[in-house]
Design goal:
Helix content is about 55%, strand content about 10%. By secondary structure, the chain is of the alpha/beta class. The protein has two domains: about 5-220, no CATH class; about 235-540, Alkaline Phosphatase, subunit A (3-Layer(aba) Sandwich). The strands form three sheets. Strands 5, 6, 7, 8, 9, 10, 11, 12 and 13 form a nine-stranded mixed sheet that branches. A two-stranded parallel ribbon has the order 1-4. It has a two-stranded antiparallel sheet with strand order 2-3. Helix 8 (about 205-230) packs parallel to helix 12. The chain is elongated and about 90 Å long. This is CDP-alcohol phosphatidyltransferase. Keywords: Membrane, Transmembrane, Transmembrane helix.
């Protein structure tokens, strides 16, 4: 250490000592306040739940076993080892706190906890979502703030634990007596099952959180090999092209995913009246045009976001509920429903993906001959928060570029509608289909729309605007079918997942509606065994399938013959 550094540190210590000597009462009060704050930070972190509903005062009125064990350990160590152990334990508590906060955020948005193996990449998606919704500057500030807060939390927790270790050492006898009393109280409360507001007083919350994170990691690593084997076993993997989908030959088939279209939209007391009115009105309008529908429920593999997991689950026949499974299946040759159409050689296959803004190699796995991403649909209008363009424009562009074009063979299209993506502000409005042009007509609508910041923090407002966005998307899609559909058009309409917990509620199901719409009565007769509800609105008690069952049931219903490949 340079001489000037030692001199500077000595001067600082001298000044602090002089200030302490000059104001002994204030110095003592400040020292005690810091001790109390350090203890509150450490104990609070050890008791911290990993769900938002669990953040209640009674959850922090408990005795943490980890604090008692830590105190005994620090009392038994000499000074230098004590400082090292205290710092490491404090940093570990800080890291565990960060993981608890991530669990809270992931549960709120995705209905599950944070996976330390798989989910780091989703943090970049979260930053991109904030940038799309709130602006790049705010996204950057939020990212920098999150990193700074994480480092600060780990550092402060380490310093707090070191300080408490020093305090215990200075008052070793009283600290040992206190640890004995606290340990006895913990054992007694645990043995008697003592509770406050239904919460056990004796807590091992931090140990449980660490155990849960460890189990999550182990399960993830085990799942990889098991899922890879499952993906290789495909009931239709070796089916010859002429045995795939023979009962849909000559039909234009559109598989349309509506973003965040879940059971909540049809059953929530605030949201459902508007959505069900649209479903019933549009069912009647389509019937007048000669179309009929049948609807049921699918249980999505994802919740609140990660739409690609829902898409791949529905189309692959596999339960793809995390990024590792998605990478595994998309790197293989699993037969997707869309690829089954391509494999026959009887359809042209295209994808309309207005949410895709970067390279998308999965197109080959999906069996799509051509993909129209956010930059390929000719849109020159404004963005609507995360959504790059209104659904009405995307559907009109699909009509202009593909569906309305003369062709030698029918069309199979996968269409992803994005206007109902959170934060549900601003929401587009319907305009005349002949007025869409290049999308510039939406400039005034965008400027007059709501601000994401006004909706994101408002649960009731989010629910209301979510419902409006679903009404918009469903109206666009069914008007497109009514306007442009033919006798040979078959529409399969389904949601990809439920909206986030702020809208759907804690513990909501993962069910999403699914409908098949067609003019040809034989197309719907093929689904008779499904016992689905007539019309676009599935009954509450309509059959519920896992989303991973949809591919095989659809292939079977329309005449495909299983020829399995081995696992």
């Amino acid at each position: 250490m340079p001489v000037f550094t030692r001199l500077r540190d000595a001067r600082v210590r001298t000044r602090l000592r002089d200030a302490r000597d000059a104001h002994p009462v204030a110095a003592r009060a400040l020292r005690r306040a810091v001790h109390v704050l350090a203890a509150a930070l450490v104990v609070g972190a050890l008791l911290m739940p990993n769900t938002a509903p669990g953040l209640r005062p009674d959850r922090f009125a408990r005795i943490p076993a980890e604090a008692i064990i830590g105190a005994v350990l620090l009392l038994a160590l000499p000074r230098r080892p004590r400082i090292v152990v205290a710092a490491l334990c404090g940093a570990g508590i800080g890291v565990l706190t960060v993981l608890n906060l991530l669990d809270i955020g992931f549960t709120e948005y995705l209905g599950r906890g944070f996976n330390v193996v798989l989910d780091w990449g989703l943090l970049d998606d979260a930053r991109a979502y904030v940038a799309d919704s709130m602006g790049g500057a705010r996204a950057t500030a939020a990212a920098v703030g999150a990193v700074a807060l994480t480092l600060l939390l780990v550092t402060v927790m380490a310093l707090a634990t070191v300080r408490l270790g020093d305090l215990l050492a200075r008052h070793r006898v009283r600290a040992a007596r206190g640890a004995l009393i606290a340990g006895t109280a913990w054992v007694t409360c645990a043995a008697l099952g003592v509770q406050i507001s239904g919460v056990p007083v004796a807590s091992d919350r931090a140990a449980g959180a660490l155990k849960g994170q460890t189990r999550r990691v182990v399960d993830t690593l085990r799942d990889e090999a098991a899922f890879a084997k499952e993906a290789r076993a495909d009931a239709f993997g070796a089916t010859p092209p002429d045995r795939l989908l023979p009962d849909l030959r000559g039909k234009d088939v559109v598989l349309a995913f509506v973003e965040s279209y879940g059971r909540t939209a049809v059953e929530d007391p605030l949201i459902a009246p508007g959505v069900t009115r649209v479903l019933d009105t549009r069912t009647a309008a389509l019937a007048k045009a000669g179309y009929h529908a049948r609807s049921g429920w699918l249980t999505s593999a994802t919740y609140g976001g990660s739409s690609w997991l829902g898409h791949s689950t529905a189309l692959s026949g596999l339960w793809i509920d995390n990024q590792q499974r998605y990478r595994t299946v998309t790197s293989g040759d699993r037969l997707t429903l869309t690829k089954a159409f391509e494999k026959t050689g009887a359809w042209d296959t295209v994808g309309v993906m207005p949410g895709v803004r970067k390279a998308w190699p999965e197109a080959e796995w999906y069996g799509l001959d051509k993909v129209y991403d956010a930059f390929g649909l000719g849109y020159e209008g404004p963005r609507f928060s995360w959504s790059t363009m209104p659904d009405q424009y995307a559907l009109e562009a699909f009509q202009r570029l593909e569906h309305g074009r003369k062709r030698d063979r029918p069309l199979m299209a996968e269409v992803i509608l994005t206007s109902s993506h959170q934060p549900w502000a601003p929401i587009p409005e319907l305009v005349g289909w002949d007025e869409l042009g290049d999308g510039s007509v939406f400039d005034a609508i965008r400027k007059a729309g709501g601000k994401p910041s006004d909706v994101i923090a408002d649960s009731t407002g989010s629910r209301r605007e979510y419902g409006r966005s679903i009404e918009y998307s469903l109206t666009c899609l069914t008007q497109w079918l009514e306007r442009y559909g033919t006798d040979d058009t078959v529409l399969v309409l389904l949601g990809d997942h439920q909206p986030i917990a702020r809208v759907s509620g804690t513990g909501a199901s993962r069910d999403v509606p699914v409908s098949v719409v067609a003019k040809d009565p034989e197309v719907l007769e093929k689904t008779d065994a499904w016992n689905w509800t007539e019309g676009l609105r599935p009954a509450k008690g309509a059959p519920v399938w896992k989303m991973s069952a949809f591919r095989d049931r659809f292939l079977t219903a329309y005449g495909s013959v299983p020829h399995p490949t081995g696992g």
